[in-house]
Design goal:
This protein has 28 helices and 34 strands. By secondary structure, it is of the alpha+beta class. A hairpin with a 5-residue loop joins strand 4 and strand 5. Helix 20 packs across helix 21. The chain is flat and about 140 Å long.
């Protein structure tokens, strides 16, 4: 064996035995040293290596490469590389071409499909190719190092796939998740749910105290520090969090279920915290709503004369009305949970519990009879009934039950049983008692054949349904069944004909007066006849339905109140903006006086401001934030006085009729707002009639009793003046009627209405202590009924305001206004009117100017300003220092500072924003004139609120 093959492993022997003379390399003994040296190096290496010699790339390789080659070894020894590995022929051709040109090549995790075991196999390798130089320094061959990385690549791909899957799970998780590291709790990751909770802020890479500073002081940061320090997880449910989710907006109250889970490193030290949880705000709010509904239910139940009780969805009794506590002599806590069981007779308790658990499991009505112990120890028979209350999805949310005393009926039953023991001796007495029960029972009883023809009926048919017995016998009872219940009744009769007893079957029966009552039947078939007993459950069902209607009315009232609060706030800010715009436009109008085109622009802009101000007034009317100036008015004369205005406004194609009842009561209302409401209703009617039809306005007296106001908690029973506006227009569909009072809701085409007309009427009526109701059907027209409170005072005489010219004066006016833009414009408007003007940015600054001793004739102050000193208090203190000082308030809306019960306080003058320079001039002259007459009129008093 040649020396260069010594210690070359198994491949050295194969190389030595191979007939190389038949290859392009020639006999082994003729190989040059520059070829044998790298072969010796390669054969001794443990790393898989192969030599590609000559232009054909004849293969010589070591033991490692032989193992890599699989079944191709040893057949490929001495073969040209392209012939040895035909499936990668192009690749090896490129390698030979480049390396024999002097280049080196390197590949990491290069993918191949090779036939090493008789079939195609996917694998990956790291490859390094270097040229081998001959004695002349010219590349004569290529040395390749081949490292298979298939296992590594596949492992990496599995890890990558698993990481990607975890990332997707993290991103798609319904709850919020975040990963924090280090003692400062720096954000590493946060899923979309977490980002949505905090308002999509940029938090990555930031410490938690920097990223979400608005939760400082709410316990979250402190809990994170504790978990990091102690290594113990933290759990919380319904934890409140005040979050500023929108920049510059007010913080929003949210509630979260929360887990802080410590994450440990290799040395078991805490290196971070995994945050996981869920935003449960909707759940917390829903639970609060349920508690409110339960309070209403309890108030309703307390008023009932029977035992009333309630239970949760699991059947645990948790509430009893006062009748139960009076009957039992036990306080409410002693009855809750299982305490009520102590009232039930021990012989009756197992059956009562069995029936109750069955009803709770199946969600079916509960009915059972048992004896209940009275406070004096006596037991009386009661029948217990309960119905499940379900939500919109059909899930049981509560159980409501009643206990009705049936002790007298039970005594009658026991007496009959006693008579039965002595049947032969007391047959006559028993028959008499049976007849008595037949006659006296409050449940209807009948005997009929299998076709439904009534053979006998008891007197309860007359007492309950009004039908004389003579009108019933011989007729088919199906004649009295509600048409919608006939199919089910036929099916139940078919079961009775088959001998199947009816234990509970509900159907509606017609009374003689045409109304229907709901009866629950028990029926038994016997020898061609049916004996049936029906119990009236109409009142129970109506009580449950009334409860649902009350809950729906409460929900609607809460929704309208929430919308009103929002619109009132918007209108306030809107009016301040309009005042700045209006004031500057008026100043600009004076600056461009005589310039036709610029003046046209200013006039158009001021017209838009007036329209916007009207829109803001309508928003304030809906939100019940407008200051009212109510006076005693006879609405009959008021409506008659509006008739000519309505005729001119609506056009000759609409016939207008006014109907005023005799003896019409006076009403305490703001006449201006009544006029606005009637005009809005008239305009809506005109649009509904497409400009042609009949409009009727009626004024009459109305008395609302407790039944009328039952579903309107904010409306008191009593005497009202009713204004009814009726049109012959297209009417409204039920779904439109439900939204009629919502602001900005309109069925008119775009540009033909703001959707605030009915909203304004609604807000005005509510703020005036009245009510509004709409009756409408498609194609039948609409009637809007406006109920306004009656006044027992005499009608107030129409007072003509002192004529005031829109001129200025030379007096000194102190302007107190926190909005810089509004303050600047009003100061210049007043200076143009000739007044001496002092200005202050808040109430405290204004009072300091008053205390300086500067002569001041009028204080012109915004109602709502920042600071501890409120505007009414500023006015009161200023009057103490300057008794003859006139005061004029201004505001976008006055809130509760100078308006109470929706009415402007007595002795207060208010100029609403936005106002014109002319309106400002007139109001100032008016207030100054009245102040000069203050000793006579008593207008020097201001409310101290």
């Amino acid at each position: 064996m040649p020396p260069f093959l010594v210690a070359g492993g198994r491949m050295a022997a194969l190389v030595a035995a191979f007939d190389w003379s038949a290859t392009a390399l020639g006999p082994l003994q003729d190989w040059p040293v520059d070829m044998t040296a790298p072969i010796a190096l390669m054969l001794r290496s443990k790393v898989p290596m192969v030599m590609l010699w000559g232009p054909a790339g004849v293969l010589i390789y070591n033991d490692g490469y032989a193992a890599f080659s699989g079944d191709r070894h040893p057949a490929i020894l001495g073969q040209p590389v392209r012939q040895a590995w035909p499936e990668v022929s192009d690749f090896n051709h490129q390698v030979l071409e480049k390396c024999l040109a002097g280049e080196t090549l390197s590949y990491k995790d290069r993918e191949f499909w090779l036939h090493r075991t008789g079939q195609s196999e996917q694998l990956w390798t790291d490859l390094d190719y270097s040229p081998i130089l001959d004695a002349r320094g010219v590349p004569a061959g290529v040395l390749a190092i081949v490292i298979e990385t298939t296992a590594k690549v596949r492992a990496q791909r599995r890890v990558s796939s698993e990481r990607e899957r975890l990332h997707r799970m993290f991103a798609q998780a319904p709850g919020f998740m975040a990963m924090l590291h280090g003692p400062e709790h720096v954000f590493d990751m946060a899923n979309p749910a977490f980002m949505q909770l905090i308002g999509h802020r940029d938090v990555m890479g930031k410490p938690v105290r920097t990223a979400v500073p608005d939760v400082e002081g709410q316990g979250f940061f402190e809990r994170l520090d504790q978990v990091f320090a102690s290594g113990e997880a933290f759990f919380a449910q319904s934890m409140p969090a005040l979050l500023q989710r929108i920049p510059n907006a007010a913080p929003e109250q949210r509630y979260v279920d929360l887990v802080y889970q410590p994450v440990r490193g290799e040395n078991d030290q805490v290196i971070g915290i995994f945050v996981e949880g869920a935003d449960v705000t909707a759940r917390v709010q829903a639970e609060a709503a349920v508690r409110a509904n339960e309070r209403q239910l309890r108030e309703f139940a307390q008023a009932m004369p029977n035992h009333v009780w309630a239970a949760g969805p699991d059947g645990a009794l948790d509430w009893f009305n006062g009748i139960v506590t009076q009957y039992s002599g036990l306080p409410l806590p002693a009855l809750q949970g299982g305490g009520w069981k102590t009232l039930v007779h021990s012989d009756d308790l197992p059956a009562a519990l069995r029936h109750w658990s069955g009803a709770v499991r199946a969600g079916t009505p509960y009915e059972v009879e048992f004896r209940l112990r009275r406070a004096d120890g006596a037991y009386r028979w009661h029948i217990a009934r309960a119905q499940a209350i379900r939500d919109a999805a059909g899930r049981i949310t509560r159980w409501v039950g009643t206990n009705t005393d049936i002790d007298e009926q039970k005594r009658t039953t026991r007496a009959l049983a006693h008579l039965n023991d002595h049947l032969e001796q007391q047959i006559a007495a028993r028959t008499a008692d049976r007849d008595r029960m037949w006659r006296l029972s409050t449940d209807v009883m009948l005997v009929c054949d299998l076709e439904g023809s009534m053979v006998s009926v008891n007197p309860a048919w007359t007492t309950l349904l009004g039908w004389p017995q003579a009108d019933l016998v011989g007729r088919n009872f199906l004649e009295f069944v509600h048409p919608d219940d006939l199919q089910a009744t036929h099916a139940e009769m078919a079961k009775l004909a088959q001998g199947i007893t009816t234990f509970r079957f509900e159907t509606r029966y017609r009374c003689q007066d045409g109304n229907y009552r709901l009866l629950v039947w028990t029926a038994v078939p016997e020898v061609g006849f049916v004996h049936a007993v029906g119990r009236d459950v109409t009142a129970d069902r109506e009580a449950a339905q009334a409860l649902k209607r009350t809950e729906a009315a409460l929900h609607q009232a809460q929704k309208m109140e929430s919308i009103g609060q929002l619109t009132g706030g918007v209108a306030h800010d809107f009016n301040n903006l309009l005042q700045v715009i209006s004031g500057n436009l008026q100043l600009l109008g004076r600056a461009v006086a005589g310039q036709e085109k610029p003046q046209g622009y200013v006039k158009s802009a001021l017209a838009a401001v007036r329209r916007a101000a009207k829109l803001a007034d309508q928003l304030l009317a809906f939100s019940r934030r407008q200051p009212l100036a109510p006076t005693t008015v006879n609405l009959g004369r008021f409506v008659t006085g509006l008739e000519e205005l309505l005729r001119r406004t609506l056009g000759e194609n609409i016939a207008i009729e006014t109907v005023v009842a005799e003896g019409l009561w006076n009403s305490l209302v703001d006449p201006t707002q009544v006029e606005n409401a009637l005009l809005n209703l008239a305009f809506n009617a005109r649009d509904a009639m497409n400009g042609s039809g009949r409009l009727t306005i009626e004024a009459s007296n109305a008395v609302l009793d407790e039944a009328d106001v039952h579903e309107h908690p904010d409306l008191a029973a009593g005497q009202y003046v009713l204004l009814a506006v009726t049109d012959t227009g297209s009417g409204m569909a039920p779904e439109v009627l439900l939204k009629a009072f919502e602001p900005f809701f309109s069925t008119k085409s775009e540009g033909k209405g703001t959707g605030l007309g009915l909203s304004m009427v609604y807000g005005f009526a509510k703020q005036s202590g009245g009510h509004v109701k709409v009756l409408s059907e498609l194609g039948q027209g609409t009637t809007v009924k406006l109920f306004l409170p009656r006044s027992l005072d005499d009608e107030a005489p129409a007072l003509a305001a002192p004529a005031q010219e829109g001129t200025g004066g030379s007096e000194t006016i102190l302007v107190a206004e926190d909005d810089e833009g509004v303050r600047a414009t009003v100061v210049e408007l007043l200076q143009q009117l000739g007044y001496q003007v002092l200005q202050a940015r808040d109430a405290a600054s204004a009072l300091a100017i008053v205390d300086s001793g500067v002569p001041i004739d009028l204080l012109f102050t915004d109602v709502v300003m920042p600071g501890s000193l409120r505007s009414p208090e500023l006015a009161r203190r200023a009057r103490e220092r300057l008794p003859h000082l006139a005061v004029l308030f201004t505001s976008g809306y006055a809130q509760d500072a100078i308006v109470h019960g929706g009415r402007l306080d007595a002795g207060v003058d208010l100029l609403g924003k936005p106002y014109t320079q002319d309106a400002l001039a007139r109001k100032i002259r008016h207030v100054l004139a009245y102040q000069q007459r203050a000793p006579a009129t008593g207008r020097d008093a201001l409310p101290a609120h």
